[in-house]
Design brief:
This protein has 273 residues and is α/β, with parallel strands linked by helices. It is built from 9 helices and 6 strands. Helix content is 42%, strand content 12%. Bound molecules: zinc ion (2 copies).
Length: 273
């Protein structure tokens, strides 16, 4: 139980952080507008010249479309040889605790490069572009018509401040604004875990995020609702599954996950498939 003083301190800290985060994002946005002015028309994925203010050149756009349209398991989103083929990854059982996982494409270029730019080079506007692209796919449209709440995977407070934004939050807000679905910050990180990209074994990734999330008070509003969890990339799915398990305690009617990209958990570019 928090004392009144501690409660007020936490709420003030959250307020200051929220303002700082907002200002940080605005400054980054301004910087990118300046860069766009100085270097107009560069493709976000390959730097080729692009006319008309498009984010991608024709080649990268076509490659991204190819990734988005490639056959995928309707339950776990892993790539398949053909639509409807038996899934060698989840054996048609899906990814517990989710009913379904949906993705824009596999984690390969140009999507890989765009996500890297979005995450580590402050180009958070790309998160909106990719979220739009994802929301336009038929599989996402089907899911989003039923969805009643969107929950972004949270970053820890410290990482959120240092990056200035949570990419999962930007993706969630963009999808939500298009579909008039509320974004609910239903979970928080209880500890600052090591970034999953530094951990290569399945077991280490699972251990790293075990019990790293807790329900927030806002989670009460997802009870009985059709909920989707949003993140940028799913590899072994340890983070998403841990968030999913935490959210299940709030008793949603259904729970699905939506991500920009699915990476091969074995790191072989799905070659074994
Ligand atoms: Zn390009
Ligand atoms: Zn599958």
């Amino acid at each position: 139980m928090l004392s009144a003083g501690e409660g007020a301190f936490k709420s003030t800290r959250r307020g200051v952080w929220s303002i700082f985060s907002h200002v940080h994002v605005k400054l980054r946005s301004l910087l990118h507008h300046v860069l766009d002015f100085c270097y107009p028309g560069a493709c976000g994925a390959c730097d080729a010249f692009v006319e008309g203010g498009d984010v991608l050149c024709e080649t990268c756009d076509a490659e991204l479309e190819k990734l988005a349209n490639a056959p995928a398991c309707t339950l776990c989103a892993m790539p398949l040889g053909s639509d409807g083929a038996p899934c060698p990854y989840c054996h048609n059982r899906g990814v517990f605790p989710f009913d379904r996982v949906i993705r824009l494409g596999v984690f390969a270029d140009p999507l890989k490069h765009l996500i890297h730019q979005m995450k580590y080079h402050g180009r958070w506007g790309l998160a909106e572009v990719l979220a739009d692209r994802l929301a336009d796919t038929e599989r996402a449209k089907g899911l989003l018509t039923e969805t009643q709440a969107i929950v972004p995977v949270p970053l820890h407070f410290k990482r959120h401040v240092s990056r200035g934004y949570n990419q999962a939050d930007v993706i969630a807000r963009q999808i939500a604004s298009r579909c008039a679905i509320p974004v609910i910050h239903a979970v928080r990180r209880t500890r600052d875990t090591e970034t999953q990209t530094n951990l290569h074994s399945h077991e280490k990734r699972i251990d790293n995020v075990r019990a790293a999330f807790a329900l927030r008070r806002a989670a009460r509003s997802i009870r009985g609702k059709h909920v989707i969890v949003v993140d940028d990339v799913m590899t072994v799915g340890a983070t998403l599954k841990e968030v999913g398990r935490t959210l299940k305690k709030a008793e949603p009617a259904s729970l699905c996950a939506i991500v920009l990209a699915i990476a091969d958990p074995k790191g072989r570019g799905f070659e074994a498939f």
